[in-house]
Write a structure and sequence with these properties.
This protein is of the alpha/beta class and about 525 residues long. It is about 40% helix and about 10% strand. A hairpin with a 5-residue loop joins strand 5 and strand 6. It is globular, with a radius of gyration of 22 Å.
Length: about 525
């Protein structure tokens, strides 16, 4: 097997679209006038041997604080064959940060108790000059006092020849100073826990955070995480992330979205009226009130009557991607040859409607690499939940097993994946990882690198599959066999058993042997 090497051709830096974007940026005009903004990092050099691919693993700061920087790095490098750390430096969510999530069994390393002092936030040392244009100034995590764990991890990793990427995630607490002025507004006018992607304070914050993180530390790059979906998917419950379906909670309908909509001649009142129609439709479906023409026909009728529904959903994606563009430009302006990656959420695997909004070639024009989530172990449970959700609204006339088989054909899954009822216990197969990796590689057309996300230890339900070392070995190896530029083992080290880390190492060593 010859894993695809990272090469200059995969860089977004030399792409016409990216070059045009940067040249049109007034803040970068002087840099552009001086010559090429930045050469592609040596991480993507064509003459790099396979052993120097990005064999990465995500780690939260708690693991280094609890177990020691040297101990964690030694375990990952020696047992897991990991050469790249994806270090979470900003998040208020416990998916990427903190110890094992509450109520789940602890792995066989680190403290065997929950962290009562967990808070989240910015784990790097912030520098005030970068945050002048945002109200979100006070985000430093109080967990470790004045200790600069980021610097300690970087020092330890560099000493071992390991790369380190920062990861920043769009997850917030309710008590962050200034957050109330940044909240989204839902369909009925309530403020929500999420931040508006067109709010100038929010946009300025992400640019400031990315700039501060990459300017102040010697990172090899940064990955942006934002797993939020637009209002259409949320209205229909068309995601595994949606618990109880309530279209009235769809976002965002704030003043900033209204202002942005005017630029594209999107009628705000018509969009809002359309989402109210979807709200009534979904609630009727959940109460088994079947329309005379069936659930899907009624849904399609609403969509045809209100094209503003899709336009408003696309507005959300536009805001999300413009923030990615801003982050990319800000990091490249530093001239430190740091790479920028984007996390592509799991719903992209399950939902053909969502897939249609995520053109890989377009995404490849925005960043240097994509972390494509291909979590197969928890994927079975999540895929079943997605089918259950869409099977309770627009596809309610179709039995879940038939719906899943039809949807799987649309997605290009193997016919050998488990039945609907058995999905949680079976998980998705290594073949799913292989196919999703190949789909991404074909989609980006050589314009950026692909690093599939492989799940280890992500909590699943009581009756759902628990991974064996062989499961991990096969899933990891499948990504390399498909031609990936490396992998990112996910979600965080503090929920991974050591025997599963060993399985990752076995797969990586076999893959890079050629």
């Amino acid at each position: 097997m010859n894993p695809k090497k990272l090469s200059p051709a995969t860089s977004a830096v030399g792409k016409n679209q990216r070059r045009t974007f940067i040249k049109n940026s007034a803040t970068l005009a002087a840099l552009v006038a001086a010559g090429p903004l930045v050469n592609m990092s040596s991480l993507l050099a064509a003459d790099k041997p396979a052993k120097d691919m990005i064999n990465g693993l995500q780690v939260g700061m708690a693991s280094f604080a609890d177990e020691g920087v040297d101990t964690v790095l030694d375990v990952l490098q020696k047992r897991g064959a990991i050469n790249t750390i994806f270090l979470n430096t900003f998040s208020y969510g416990d998916g990427l940060t903190g110890r094992q999530v509450a109520g789940q069994p602890f792995p066989d390393h680190g403290p065997q108790e929950t962290d009562k002092n967990y808070h989240g936030g910015n784990y790097a040392i912030p520098h005030a000059q970068y945050y002048k244009n945002t109200i979100l100034k006070d985000t430093r995590s109080p967990e470790y006092g004045n200790r600069d764990l980021v610097a300690e991890v970087l020092k330890g990793a560099k000493k071992r020849g390991m790369k380190v990427f920062a990861t920043i995630e769009d997850q917030w607490r309710d008590d962050v100073p200034g957050i109330d002025e940044c909240r989204e507004v839902d369909l009925v006018g309530r403020k929500t826990k999420t931040t508006c992607l067109f709010n100038p304070n929010v946009r300025a914050f992400w640019t400031a955070l990315a700039t501060d993180t990459c300017a102040s530390y010697d990172f090899d790059g940064l990955v942006f995480f934002n797993e939020r979906s637009g209002p259409l998917l949320n209205a229909l419950g068309a995601s595994h992330l949606v618990g109880s379906i309530d279209p009235s909670k769809s976002t965002c309908f704030c003043q900033y979205h209204q202002q942005e909509a005017k630029k594209y001649n999107i009628n705000f009142e018509r969009a809002k009226e359309g989402y109210h129609k979807l709200d009534a439709f979904a609630k009727a479906a959940l109460n088994n009130q079947r329309p005379s023409d069936g659930y899907y026909v009624e849904f399609q009728r609403i969509m045809l009557e209100y094209p503003e529904i899709v336009a408003w959903d696309q507005l959300f994606d536009r805001g999300k991607h413009e923030i990615v563009d801003n982050v990319y430009a800000a990091i490249k302006a530093l001239g430190k040859k740091q790479l920028v990656g984007l996390h592509i959420e799991h719903v992209n695997s399950f939902n053909p409607f969502f897939r249609a909004t995520r053109d890989y070639e377009n995404l490849a024009s925005r960043v240097d690499f994509l972390k494509v989530v291909a979590y197969n172990n928890c994927g079975g449970e999540r895929y079943q939940h997605f089918i259950k959700n869409v099977g309770s609204t627009i596809f309610k006339d179709i039995p879940h097993e038939e719906l899943m088989r039809f949807n799987s054909r649309l997605l290009g899954y193997s016919e050998n994946e488990a039945s609907y009822d058995n999905l949680p216990m079976a998980g998705l197969s290594p073949d799913y990882v292989y196919r999703e990796t190949q789909r991404a590689i074909a989609g980006v057309k050589g314009k950026c690198a692909i690093l599939p996300g492989i799940d280890i230890g992500i909590p699943t339900g009581k009756n759902s599959r628990k991974q064996s070392p062989d499961d991990v070995y096969k899933a990891t190896l499948a990504a390399y066999k498909a031609g990936a530029n490396g992998v990112i083992i996910s979600r965080k080290y503090s929920e991974m058993k050591l025997e599963l880390i060993d399985a990752v190492g076995r797969a990586i060593r076999e893959a890079i042997k050629g």
